[in-house]
Amino acid sequence: MININKLNIEKMIKNNDIEDLFQVDISKQRWIWINKDIFIDILQNVIEYDSFNEEELIHEIKNISEDRVIQSLNEKFENIGWMSVDQKLFESLCEDFVATKDIETFIYVDKKVYTKKILKKVNELDWILKAMAVDTYQHFGLENKNLTEIFKEYFNENGMIIEEILRTGEYKFNALTWKLYEESNLLEFYKMNQRYRQWAEGNARFMFYEISK
After folding, report:
1. What does the alpha-carbon distance between residue 172 and residue 85 come to, in Å, rounded to a whole number?
2. Do the Cβ atoms of 196 and 139 come closer than 8 Å?
3. What is the pLDDT of residues 21-43, one digit of tens each?
4. What's this model's pTM, rounded to 2 decimal places?
5. Contact 182, 128 (CB under 8 A)
6. Which of 93, 137, 194, 207 measures 20 to 30 Å from 76, CA to CA?
């Protein structure tokens, strides 16, 4: 069998361009996905394995730690201005991608492309931020702040909140919790694990503007 030490994954990834690893013109790509099913393809693109038995090589590649590959790729993509994005979050941002359930898929995205996508999504889902502000104002008083002040300080254009609720399905703020159901486009509000109400986009916007008057 091949000595696994000969397969220095970190060195192979470091010494090869993204184009060589993935066999693509990176300038024409906006995002790339990878999972363990295609590790073999990626590594075979850059391994000089003429002196190896191919079956043994494939066997050894299958036994390579997923963490080793991903850590090395994270650094590689970071160097070209790309970033790693959770696949569940990316599914909410990109119509062309469907998250995998039976295997973990890793997504790499051009940072400029990601920024545009998340800003668009924050604008689209600003009703969620408004609903959170109303709930916080009515159920978690903050130093006598009014609704507008709470919204501006904690929720307005807060991409981190949108990222978290799209990635995990919920967002927590002290004793308050909101759960998002994307398929039905509904937001449920809980305080101390007790369900208080359910928001839809229309009534969230209406309530926010009515209370803000």
Report:
1. 21
2. yes
3. 999 999 999 999 998 888 878 87
4. 0.86
5. no
6. 93
